Amino acid sequence: MIAKLLACTMLSSTFFVGSAFAQHAPGYVPPKTSWGVPDLQGFWNSTSITSLQRPAGVEKLVVTEAEGRTIVNDNPLIIITQQEAEAHGSDPNDTSILADKNADRGYNAFWIDPGTRLADVKGEIRTSWIVDPPNGRIPFKPGATRSGAQHSPANFNDPETRPLFERCIMTESMAGPVMQNAMYNSTLQVVQAPGAVVIVAEMVHHARIIPIVADAAAARHGPDVIPKWAGDSVGWYEGDTLVVETRNVHPQQPSLISKMGKVTERFSRWSDNQVLYEFVVEDPSLYTQTWRGEMALNTSKQMYEFACHEGNHAMLGILGGARELEAQGITPTVGPGIAAGLVSPSQRAKAAASN
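Request: output the structure for the sequence above.
Response:
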């Protein structure tokens, strides 16, 4: 048993070995709190065209400025924004500017904030937050089922089966685990005290409360019968880094771990303007391997109060529309998605070259 525990400890240590010697920029001395731990407090933003997984057709993790611009120009949210910018000042009721006539747009680009660049992580232009596997994709096992499947945009049975975000309960992507950027409102606030760290996500204003213990050996999680939104997290400090281990995510929350898995996160000040957020996902029930990533959290202005009213006002329309379709003998379904019908500049160039 001791040999097994030692082997597991050594294996876990190797997950972060690539970044263990690069937790902050060369010559940078991370600030400390008044009680002597790394000072991570403030407002941090992850707005970026970079997302968890690498776009299809992109092979490299790190790209040049020119390569990055091509990837950005092919992003659906950027294409939508450009389409609307070209029609600025025209009749707002004229939908002819939307060549795809896609009603799934929901609302115009004024309300979204996806960013205009790929992320700069430790001075590198990154195409995905995932750094391992090398292809930048989540290594799902064939047939693996994530939690929260009953809460789906395709399930119109009743209010309780609608997605949590639509019901204004929480945001899965921003709160984690793993924490990610979103289409808008990708700001976090970190507040520290000697016995706890609180990470507040701007989206739906979810507060993740992380008790702090002396070290990894002192980490204890709550009973499994009490799952939590964003999981049961406990943290400790290792040098200039806050380490957080999370298990037992609420089963109604779409999550990147099952009840058997865990996420280990590390927060380090890379510079005055950036926090390096690293994560490792371990869950043999869902994945063919352990996978990990790095994300940049950059200094941000103070967040606004987030008010969510979809759950109050939109639910009657969503369910009422579904009942009307059913009365007509039609099964309610989700639309084609925000990117349906869009043609990227790269696709247009290939089509032109082939002709």
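Residues 2-14 form the longest helix (13 residues).
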